[in-house]
Write a structure and sequence with these properties.
The chain has 330 residues and is mostly helical. The protein is built from 14 helices and five strands. A hairpin with a 6-residue loop joins β4 and β5. 25% of the residues are buried.
Length: 330
């Protein structure tokens, strides 16, 4: 009796990259970014296999990004991180030239900070944004949260009685506590009531499942269906999880918040480049101006090093580091 045997086809390189990224529990956005950069790196060198290339090819690609694509230093470093991940984690190549690569230095820039009057004008214009976008924008300034920390906020991490918010898994994987502004308590209560109605509808439809980090999903298999783990700012419509292929509610898309912040700033006549992160910078600066110490601000922002927080002290000086211009002495 003759049997047909077929040898298993080896996985394509980019599929191997996806597997390794998911094994290490990296985010979906990181997966998409790394895959895109690795694909560009290979295409730039006419589809040569990375094992056939080395330091010269990596340097040539990074030079191309800087001189012809005119990307920023942070974007160039992002591309380098993706390539290093490919060689070290996927191909298991331990080459000396990987350790000698210097990352492009990010230029030190002062953060863009809005004045109190500019914040008032921006929030006034943002009041025309649909809910919960308007509430998220106010929350960014009122708490100092990063955009992704706000849209990923879970029900269990909002305490209306204590007027505090627990920020889970912030930058660097750290948790921290920040305040919930008194002026937003009722708006948050209304949002949670609406979210509870949606949750009950999702239970009936069998679409109540919410994304959880892999470790938590394994340890608490039923947690993804519980009320406390739901996103406070869930999307109105269902979407299909690109990894698990299940249909459920994701959180509000961060790009919506970015668009409305930009539009509100333009309508308010604010000339400064304004983004959701500008509200975090403004929060920190205005807290310092109110007389709170730098360590308190550091804890509220979740900075590991107080030196990072110190950059906001520049606004505490009267323009030009507090020096009186000689012109004003005439």
């Amino acid at each position: 009796m003759q049997t047909n045997t077929t040898s298993a086809q080896p996985k394509k390189l980019l599929d191997q990259v996806r597997d390794k990224i998911r094994f290490k529990h990296y985010s979906l956005s990181t997966e998409k970014t790394y895959i895109a950069w690795i694909r560009q790196f290979i295409l730039y060198h006419h589809k040569r296999h990375p094992l056939e290339m080395g330091a010269l090819e990596v340097e040539a690609f990074l030079t191309y990004l800087a001189t012809q694509r005119h990307v920023s230093s942070s974007t160039q470093n992002q591309a380098l991180s993706a390539i290093l991940f490919l060689y070290r984690e996927v191909l298991a190549v331990d080459l000396s030239w990987l350790d000698n690569f210097e990352r492009s230095k990010k230029p030190r820039r002062l953060p863009v900070v809005l004045t109190i009057q500019e914040i008032q004008a921006l929030l006034h214009e943002a009041s025309g944004a649909p809910e919960p976008i308007c509430l998220i924008i106010k929350l960014l300034y009122g708490t100092g949260m990063r955009l992704m920390e706000a849209v990923r906020l879970r029900v269990k991490d909002v305490d209306l009685e204590r007027k505090e918010v627990i920020v889970r898994d912030g930058k660097g994987g750290k948790d921290r506590v920040t305040m919930l502004p008194e002026s937003l308590v009722e708006s948050m209560r209304t949002q949670l009531a609406l979210r509870r109605v949606w949750h009950e509808q999702d239970v009936v439809l069998g679409k109540v499942d919410v994304w959880l980090p892999d470790a938590l999903a394994i340890k608490y298999p039923n947690a993804s269906k519980e009320w406390g783990w739901q996103y406070v700012f869930a999307a109105k419509n269902y979407s299909v999880d690109p990894r698990r292929k299940s249909e459920r509610r994701h959180h509000v898309e961060e790009k919506q918040v970015q668009r409305y912040v930009k539009l509100a700033a333009q309508t308010a006549g604010i000339a400064k480049p304004t983004s959701p992160h500008t509200l975090r910078h403004s929060f920190a600066t205005h807290i310092l101006q109110s007389g709170y110490d730098i360590r308190t601000v550091q804890e509220l922002l979740g900075h590991s090093d107080v030196a990072t927080t110190m950059i906001y002290t520049h606004v505490l000086n009267k323009g030009g580091k507090g020096v009186v211009s000689p012109l004003d002495r005439l």
